[in-house]
Specification:
six-stranded mixed beta sheet; Nucleotidyltransferase, domain 5; 8 strands; 3 domains; alpha/beta; two-stranded antiparallel ribbon; single chain; 453 residues
Amino acid sequence: MQRFIPINREDDLSKPISIQDCLPEGHLARYIVEVVESIDLSNFEQHYAGRGSEAYPPSLLLQLFIYAYATGIFSTRKIERATYDIIPFRYIACNLHPDHDTLAKFRKRFKKEFEEVFVQVLRVAKETGIAQFGKIKVAVDGTKIHANASRHSAMSYAHAEKIEAQIKDEVLKLMELAKKAENIPEGMVVPDEIKRREDRLASIAEAKVKIEARAKERFEQEQAEYAAKVQARRDKEEATGKKARGKEPTPPVAGPDPKDQVNLTDEESRIMLQSGGSGFEQCYNAQAAVDVDSLLIVTLSVTQDANDKKQIEPTLEQLKELPKDIAQPEQLLADTGYCSEHNVKSCETAQIEPMIASKREQHHTPVLERFADDPPALQADATPMERMKHRLKTREGRKTYAKRKQTVEPVFGIIKGVMGFRQFLTRGLENVRNEWNLVCLAWNLKRMAALRP
């Protein structure tokens, strides 16, 4: 005869249950609450005037967001629902239920304060022995994350002019139809049709203005670069007394390119090529510098540039701003997308040793190359790029650079694959940077929870 555990829904579910007892001691929600309550949130609190109805404590809302992002819930409506349905959320919210509007305003309202919390969490990691920091090695990389906009909402300058001419022609025909007041198709309201097209023309005109403004900004930058190249060429000719080899620099062309685009949903996002051959999508380029030993993110940013070459200097500035008691980076690891003479010099100027690949790595390096002896010593007058290339060829350099792939790429892989963050919910560069800060905060606390003694 089969034997089963007896159940009685009437009695068993009517017994009082403590949410505290439902969570094990080492649960991530408990850890997030513990860390957030240990840091200073006075900068959040001073934004509340103290008038009107009582507000939810900033610590509670911040804890909810961090746990939500760490567990793959990003929508404020879903977070609100989770405070009813999911025990860890009920624990964090103390059985309160902040509505989605309150949560959305909190996420949008505090930007600088989230950055300060990010640094305070790094300090907690050091003080609790989770990360040693001090003189650290950081691996830098970027990943494309979808914007909250479709690439099909993007409009090129050439297409805008084509559609603009077509709609203007339609408006003229509709006005002629209205004058004659005959042969009007059944169901057509001519004034409504004209109004709809005039609104569309206004949107197209606005899009064209934005494309032209971007083109002007780009032209000014390209003009400055062109003038610098021409001057460098002249200086070289004067120094050597010979005509410089190679083609003359090509002057930039003013005005928008026919392929220049703007997205009508999120104008600050850009069309970017996705890795893995998945084509072009409307994206932002999210950057992070990760501590090689602890895999904690120490700096972060979001850029509209699809290319990573211009991201070394902003990263160096952020590393410089880190408190000295938290981190003093001594080596920077990056892939070939960051390699340039200027970036290598910038690292050396910042007294950080660059370890940036100058060419794509082979997937299967021959065994003898992996165990090859160090190359001969360089001449004393070697350039910064030559010194870096030599350093990467040494046994120690190869061993150090090999840590790059197992540092920053797994972090992005877990953020996208495990935490499920593949698309921003907010729009606009400033809001997106704020959201990326929350994502990195969630990763750091998730990682710290796994590393704690």
